[in-house]
Here is the input.
Amino acid sequence: MHKVILASKSKVRKKILDKNKIKCKVFPSNIDEESVKKSLLKENANPEIISKNLAELKANKISLKFNNEIVLGADSVIDINKELISKPKDREEALRILKKLNGKTHYLISSVCISKNGSMIWNHTDKASLTMKDLTNEELQEYLSKISDEALYAYNVYQIEGEGKSLFSKIEGDEDTIMGLPIKKIKEYLNNI
Here is the structure.
């Protein structure tokens, strides 16, 4: 049984680790994700690089505080036609994001990084493809009315394990990746160290 430190306050990521019998302590990194994203976008970084860099920053920051401990950082981004979609700041922005995704295929990219003593020792990025149904404005607003503020701001505009599944006509990829933690690869790595 492995013990890790999760550098994230994501309840879903913690739940995935618990479900897979990986013991973890939670120490959120509290990095300023938006300023990191802006800086990387100025350098023309693609969504995969942004996701990986954020996961690495989170893991490295927390692993500096815990000598010889395994620290897991993770990040997920939405990529629609190479445009990065961030978590909404309010319900109006959430509706704008849903309208942008409406009837189209986008990618959800989840990166994970494992660090020790301030340096990355392993990382993995996985990608899932999601095609949203073509929904009316009323259907989008009705969906949003069912989502709590906590869920909306924590998990972006949809929770694939909850109400969000109803938004899609096609989902290709690992559900754990879509929920923010490609656990199969993490377990493979942990079992080999």
Q: What stands out?
A: The beta strands are 3-6, 23-26, 71-80, 83-85, 105-116, 119-132, 168-172. The helical segments are 11-19, 33-42, 47-63, 91-101, 137-145, 149-154, 175-178, 183-191. The radius of gyration is 17 Å.
